[in-house]
Write a structure and sequence with these properties.
The structure is a homotetramer. By secondary structure, chain A is mainly β. Chain A has three helices and 15 strands. In chain A, strands 1, 2, 3, 4, 5, 6, 7, 8, 9, 12, 13 and 14 form a twelve-stranded mixed β-sheet that branches.
C-alpha cells in the first residue's frame, strides 16, 4: 500500500516493518482522537519562547503566551478501528504538554515544545507528527459522580495535573472551576494549527545534518468540542531538572484554566519548510 | 485517635506509622468509592469453588456461580477528602477480580478469591479488608464519545477487559452490549455482602498459626448505582500460570455480561468468625 | 503445614490463600537474600528520631545516627528455590530505606522507618517483617566493566541513589569511592539487629486498637559480606512531600558512604513486645 | 555543532530540540555499551526469514539461523559520560531481541527483526540505528553469589529470559549451563555486523514513500568480550499475539545457549542502500 521502491516488500506504517504489517507500533493515519483536557494558560518570557523557534518560525500574535495541557486520550487508527477491543492498552494514554504560540509567514499557530506520554505507540506517533515526546507519568484529578465523598458539581471543584519523568516531578498545575463558557470563549491559541518540527537524526556522523528536519503544519478534520467547557483560575509550577530544559519556559503569569473535551481526525500534515 | 496502649504514640491507619500519621499508605476508613464495572457472569465447577471456601463458609445459593469484574475505581478516605487534589495518583486505580457466591450461616454472600490492582494503596487497603490483592495490569476498553472513529452508541458496542501480572496474561473477558436494564435486573451475586478472610502471617515460625485469620463481613453504605446499566453477551477466558491458581476456577459456561457504575461508602466490617 | 484451626483448609503463607497454596504473593520463610548496598551514613536530630520510637523502643547508643540504604536484592523462599527460573521477576527488586539506630531494653539495634520498593512480593513480605514498605522507583548508578566509556576502577568512581514515589523524588544520595575497608570497619549500625513494628489494622472501627501491633526482633543466619567493601564521602538530600513524613529525618551531617555486598537467611523473628 | 541550515539554531541529537540541547532523549553518538547476554541459538524456516528481508538483503550463509538475546545494558553517550551519576535511570535498561542471519552483496551479517526494551531513551536510540524497538518488560534470571539459597557455581545453573509487552508474554527461553568456552567458540552470527533498516514515515500521505528508508551497516569499535563465556543447552518458545508478528519466526530447532558479557563503542553507521 505504501508507495516506495518495488523491491521493498515489507509492510507497516512504522517499526517493526514485517511481511504482514501487523507489528507496527502504530497503524497508518488517518488517526481519530478523543481528549479530556485540563489546560492552564500562562505567559512566559517572549525572548525565551523566541529562543525555541527556529526561523522561519516566529513569535505568535501574543508573544510569550502558552499553555500546559494535561490530557487523557482515546485514539485509534482508521485502518484498525477494532484496536479498542483487540487490546485496550493500545488506545488510551495520558499526556502532559507545553504549548506556545508561534506564527509561520503571517499565519498564527501553536507549537508543542515539551510533551510527556505514558506509552510507546503514542510516543512514536508523536515523533512522526513532530511532537518531541518522551515517556513520563501524568496524573490528573478525576471525580466519579457516584462516589459519596467526591464533589457533585463542577462549580468550585478543583483539579490538578502532574507530569513526572525519570523519577522527578517536572510540572504541576491546578484549576478551580468557576463558570461554564462557550466554545468561542476558549483562548484561540488552544485551537490554532500546530506547526511542528519533524526530526530524524543522521546516523553516519554526529555533525552531519539530520536525515529529516522539516516544518509541518498538522491537519485536523471532524473537529468537535464537548458541551461542557469550564473556565476558572489556575496555578502552574515548573520544576528544574538536570536533564530537561522546560524550566526556561516557566510561567511569569497565570491567565486562567480550562477543562473541556474534544475530538478530531488527523488526516495528515503538510510540509511547509525543510532545513535540510 | 486510634485506641491502643498509651505508650504507642505513632499515628497512621497503616504503614508507615509516624509521629503525624501523614505517610500512611492509606488513611483510615470510612472509604468512599465510585466504580465503573465491566462484569462477566459465569458458572464454574461447584466442587472447585467449595475447595476455596474454608468452613464455616459454604457454597452460595447458586453453587458454582461467579463473575469477573474488570473495573476502574475512584476512591478517597473520609479523613483526607483533598487527596484527589494533593495527588490524583493516590485516588484512581484499576482492578480485575474473580468473585464467587458463598454463604455464611444461611446468609448468602460473595467472596473475592483473586484480585489484581495497579497501585500500592489499594493493594494495602484491600489486604485490610480481606481482598487477596496482588499487583497487576488491567486494561479495559473505553470509548470517547467525541472520537470520530469510535462507536457513538452503546447498543452493539463491544468491550474487553484484560488482567496481566508478572509478565503474563491471566484472564480476558469481552462484552457485546445488547440492552439497557434496571438495577433490579442485575444478578444478585453482584450486590451480595462480601465475606472475606483477613489474614496476617505469623513471623516467628512458618508452621505457627497466622497472627490474624478471621472472617469478616464488609459493610456498605450510601450505595448507588448509575442510571446506565447495560446487559449483553460475554466471553471469558482464564490463562494458566505457574504461580497463580485462578485457572482452577475457569468458566464452564458464560451467563452474561454487565456494564454499570456504582458508588458506596465502606464504614467498616464485622468480624464474624476467627480461625485462630 | 501451617498450624491453625483444622477447619481452615486453605494454604499459602500469605494472600491469596488457595487450595494448593501456589498463588501466595510470597512463599514461607526461611527467606534467602543477596544484596548490593549503596549506603549513606548521616546524623539527624535525635529528638526527631525519638519521636519515631514508641516505648519501649529508645534511642540507640549514638542518638540521631542513621543511614539511607539504596540497594538491589536477589531473594528466594526456601520452599521454592526454583523461582528464579520459574519467573525471574519474582526474585529481584530494588529498595531505598531510611534506617536509624535504636535500642530495646539495653540492646542496641536499628529500625527501618521508611522504605520504598518496586514490586508487590517484597512489599508484602516487608509488611510481615515490620518494614513499612510502599511502592516506589529506585535508581542506582551501576557501571559495567566492559563499557569502554565507564570507569574501570572503583577508587574515585561516583555513585548515586535516587528514590521516587507517586511521581516525585523523595531522596537522593551520592558516594565518591575513596578506599577499600575491612568488614570490621563497617559502621556497627549497619549490622545491628532490626527491631521492627508489625502492624495490621483493625477493620471494625477506625478508633479500635490494631489487630496486630507488636515489636519484633528479626533474625539473621548465614550472614556473609563480600570481599569488596568500599568507603568514601557522601552527600544526601531529602525532598519534601505532602504525603510523606521522611523529611523530618533529613540529615544534619553526612558521615560517610559505603558500598558492599552481603547475603543472609531470614529464619524468622521473635516477638519481644506487644502494644495491644 | 550539528551541521545543518544556519537558520536552525536549536540543539540536541534528538527530540526535544532546544536552545541548549539538554532535553534530548538521547545524546549524540559515539555511544558506549556494556552488556550481559543470555542468548538462545535457534533455527527457523528460511522462507520465513526471507520474507522479512527486503532486497538487496538476502539470506545469510546459514539460512534460517537466528538467536534470541535477552540482555541487560549499561550505556552512555560520549558527550555526557556523567549521566550514570546525573540520573542512573538514563543509563540502564533491559532488552529482548530476535536476530537472524542475513547477507548484503556477499557480506554476511545479522539483522534484528523484533526487539522490546523497557525505557524511552533506548527505544529512541534504537530507532535511529534501525532497531524496530517497542516497549516491553524483560525478565532475566540472575543469581547473587552471597545469597545462601542460590547456586554457587555456573555449571548446571539454569537461566530464563522472558519478554512481555502490552500485557502478554511474547517469548521465553531457558539455558542450562554446561561448559566454559572461548570467545572463538561463540556462534559467528552473534558477532556479525548488523544490517538494519532505518525508517521514518511520511506524514503527508499514508501511501507516500517514507521520509527515510535506508539500509545501514552499524559500526562497532572497542569490542571486548568478558572472560566468562558459557555454553549450554537451551529451550525457546514464542507466543502468539494479535498485534505482533514474531510468531512466524518461531524456532524449529534449538541449537544451544550462551551466556557472556561484552562491550563496544558505536561510532556511527554507514548507509549502504536507500529504497526511497
Amino acid at each position: 500500500m505504501i508507495g516506495m521502491h518495488p523491491d521493498f516488500k515489507l509492510k507497516g506504517f512504522s517499526y517493526p516493518l514485517t511481511p504482514k504489517g501487523i507489528s507496527s507500533v502504530i497503524q497508518s493515519f488517518p488517526w481519530h482522537y478523543g481528549t479530556e483536557y485540563l489546560n492552564i494558560l500562562f505567559r512566559t518570557d517572549p525572548d525565551v519562547v523566541k529562543s525555541f523557534l527556529p526561523e522561519p518560525l516566529e513569535l505568535g500574535p501574543d508573544p510569550g503566551l502558552g499553555y500546559v495541557a494535561f490530557s487523557k486520550w482515546w485514539s485509534i487508527s482508521d485502518e484498525n478501528k477494532d484496536m479498542p477491543l483487540i487490546n485496550p492498552e493500545r488506545t488510551q494514554y495520558k499526556e502532559a504538554a507545553i504549548w506556545v504560540g508561534c506564527s509561520f509567514r503571517g499565519n498564527p499557530g501553536q507549537i508543542c515544545l515539551f510533551v510527556w506520554v505514558d506509552n510507546d505507540f503514542t510516543m512514536a506517533r508523536g515523533w512522526f507528527m513532530g511532537f518531541p515526546k518522551k515517556l513520563g507519568q501524568v496524573y490528573i484529578t478525576d471525580y466519579h459522580f457516584l462516589n459519596p465523598g467526591m464533589p457533585q458539581k463542577m462549580e468550585g471543584a478543583t483539579f490538578k495535573g502532574i507530569a513526572s519523568a525519570h523519577g522527578e516531578k517536572l510540572m504541576e498545575g491546578t484549576m478551580t472551576v468557576e463558570r461554564k463558557i462557550k466554545q468561542s470563549d476558549l483562548p484561540p491559541i488552544m485551537t490554532a494549527p500546530p506547526y511542528h518540527i519533524r526530526h530524524f537524526p543522521n546516523i553516519e556522523s554526529p555533525t552531519a545534518p539530520p536525515s529529516v528536519l522539516e516544518l509541518v503544519r498538522l491537519g485536523a478534520e471532524n473537529k468537535k468540542v464537548g458541551e461542557e467547557i469550564w473556565e476558572g483560575s489556575g496555578t502552574l509550577k515548573f520544576y528544574e531538572s538536570e536533564i530537561e530544559e522546560h524550566f526556561a519556559l516557566r510561567p511569569k503569569e497565570i491567565l486562567g484554566a480550562y477543562r473541556f473535551s474534544s475530538g478530531y481526525t488527523f488526516p495528515g500534515g503538510e510540509i511547509v519548510y525543510s532545513w535540510v
